[in-house]
């Protein structure tokens, strides 16, 4: 890695501003560590519960650096737009092999904490090339910083926007400052929009009308991806999701998307999800099918019984082959079966891989919904999944909910299968 550092040739404007070279305070005693990287959160906002979300980001960034870039010889540049104490920036440097990280947080009061944490890296096993920093710390509004990078034609391979609330205000500037093929890691904690309690705000932020749905947290992920897809299309690009991760603490919606060159046919993965409250069946509709939104369970279109959300992302939540590589890397690094916050990456990534089956439609069905409609006790989840698979359907768990099933089997058939399992037919 030291040799790689020596080969770095950063754009001239990425050399650090003067204030970054002032004498820095000695790092305080370490209070925390994530996957062997020590840091001190100090007074910054820091959640140890979010370590799994950071693990996923580091795995994805590493794979992207290794073989995902259009120009593998260019320095690998990461930008952490809302860095808090700098833990992500530090992990992109120390674990993902970033050649250079820009760590930014609006709060200037966090400067000593961020600088002290990043200094640990410099003083550690990988010293910076003489006279050239591997990182820089700034205190700007994220949008302004990203827009400035774009105006100076400084493009990054990975941009991380770990926002409080919604992410939508930052997406356009982040896409502009991203290299083509680069990864953008978006975080939203806007659960009110995701759960349909703020239809006006979901409309203004994500361009999507959201009302309460039985799978609100998957809707939340699709709303965030859909918002980014819309912004990318406006700029003449398209995006593909690398992975989508919902975490209960918060709650937090995180999506890693890849920026791809050229406009795509957005309508193939962008549309509406409708849920019939009468029969419990969900369906997706594209823009050209808007006039046909209804449910097969009734001849008339009962407006009150059908909930419609969108437009949002209706395509795959993850890239299965990328997730498989992330799981292999987690195994290689010894991260797969160890957990620092109760989330085992092996379990999480394996479930996400199953969720990536392109035959699976958006949404999931709660087990208690099936048992209530079947008028039987809930069948064991594993048994129901196996029975549906034997019938030729795709079925799996969801990383988003514990007692839910993702399947392309119509709910009426799920009810029949549940009754058979309970020996009622
Ligand atoms: C969720 S915390 C970041 C946590 C950190 N990324 C981590 O993983 O521990 C959000 C941070 O964004 C900063 N912030 C809020 N609004 C901002 C803005 N518009 N531009 C830049 N930073 C902002 C806050 O000061 C806060 O430290």
TrEMBL record:
<dbReference type="InterPro" id="IPR029063">
    <property type="entry name" value="SAM-dependent_MTases_sf"/>
</dbReference>
<keyword id="KW-0820">tRNA-binding</keyword>
<comment type="similarity">
    <text>Belongs to the class I-like SAM-binding methyltransferase superfamily. Trm1 family.</text>
</comment>
<dbReference type="GO" id="GO:0005634">
    <property type="term" value="C:nucleus"/>
</dbReference>
<feature type="region of interest" description="Disordered">
    <location>
        <begin position="15"/>
        <end position="35"/>
    </location>
</feature>
<dbReference type="GO" id="GO:0000049">
    <property type="term" value="F:tRNA binding"/>
</dbReference>
<protein>
    <recommendedName>
        <fullName>tRNA (guanine(26)-N(2))-dimethyltransferase</fullName>
        <ecNumber>2.1.1.216</ecNumber>
    </recommendedName>
</protein>
<keyword id="KW-0694">RNA-binding</keyword>
<keyword id="KW-0819">tRNA processing</keyword>
<keyword id="KW-0808">Transferase</keyword>
<keyword id="KW-0949">S-adenosyl-L-methionine</keyword>
<keyword id="KW-0489">Methyltransferase</keyword>
<dbReference type="GO" id="GO:0160104">
    <property type="term" value="F:tRNA (guanine(26)-N2)-dimethyltransferase activity"/>
</dbReference>
<dbReference type="InterPro" id="IPR002905">
    <property type="entry name" value="Trm1"/>
</dbReference>
<dbReference type="Pfam" id="PF02005">
    <property type="entry name" value="TRM"/>
</dbReference>
<dbReference type="InterPro" id="IPR042296">
    <property type="entry name" value="tRNA_met_Trm1_C"/>
</dbReference>
<dbReference type="GO" id="GO:0002940">
    <property type="term" value="P:tRNA N2-guanine methylation"/>
</dbReference>
């Amino acid at each position: 890695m030291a040799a790689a550092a020596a080969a770095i040739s950063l754009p001239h404007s990425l050399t650090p501003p003067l204030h970054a070279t002032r004498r820095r305070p000695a790092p305080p005693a370490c209070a925390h560590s994530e996957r062997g990287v020590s840091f001190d959160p100090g007074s910054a906002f820091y959640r140890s519960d979010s370590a799994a979300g950071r693990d996923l980001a580091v795995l994805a960034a590493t794979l992207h650096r290794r073989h995902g870039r259009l120009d593998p010889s260019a320095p690998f540049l990461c930008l952490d737009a809302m860095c808090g104490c700098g833990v992500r920036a530090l992990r992109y440097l120390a674990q993902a092999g970033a050649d250079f990280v820009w760590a930014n947080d609006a709060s200037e009061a966090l400067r000593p904490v961020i600088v002290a944490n990043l200094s640990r890296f410099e003083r550690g096993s990988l010293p910076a090339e003489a006279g050239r920093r591997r990182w820089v710390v700034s205190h700007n509004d994220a949008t302004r910083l990203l827009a400035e990078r774009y105006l100076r034609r400084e493009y990054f391979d990975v941009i991380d926007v770990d926002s409080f609330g919604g992410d939508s205000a930052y997406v356009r500037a982040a896409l502009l400052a991203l290299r083509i093929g680069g990864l953008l890691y978006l975080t939203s904690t806007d659960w009110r929009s995701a759960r349909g309690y703020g239809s006006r705000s979901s409309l203004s932020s994500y361009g999507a009308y959201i009302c309460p749905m039985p799978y609100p947290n998957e809707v939340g992920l699709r709303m965030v991806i859909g918002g980014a897809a819309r912004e990318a299309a406006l700029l003449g690009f398209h995006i593909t999701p690398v992975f989508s991760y919902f975490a209960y603490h918060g709650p937090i919606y995180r999506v890693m998307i890849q920026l791809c060159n050229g406009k795509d046919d957005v309508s193939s993965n962008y549309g509406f999800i409708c849920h019939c409250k009468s029969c419990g069946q969900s369906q997706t509709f594209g823009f050209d099918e808007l006039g046909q939104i209804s449910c097969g369970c009734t001849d008339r279109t009962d407006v009150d019984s059908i909930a419609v959300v969108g437009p949002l992302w209706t395509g795959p939540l993850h890239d299965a082959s990328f997730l498989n590589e992330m799981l292999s890397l987690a195994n290689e690094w010894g991260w797969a079966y160890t957990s620092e916050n109760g989330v085992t990456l092996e379990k999480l990534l394996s479930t996400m891989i199953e969720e990536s089956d392109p035959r699976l439609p958006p949404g999931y069905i709660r087990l208690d919904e099936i048992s209530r409609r079947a008028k039987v006790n809930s069948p064991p989840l594993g048994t129901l999944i196996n029975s549906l698979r034997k019938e030729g359907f795709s079925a799996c768990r969801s990383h988003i909910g514990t007692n839910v099933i993702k399947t392309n089997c119509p709910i009426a058939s799920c009810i029949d299968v549940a009754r058979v399992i309970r020996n009622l037919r």
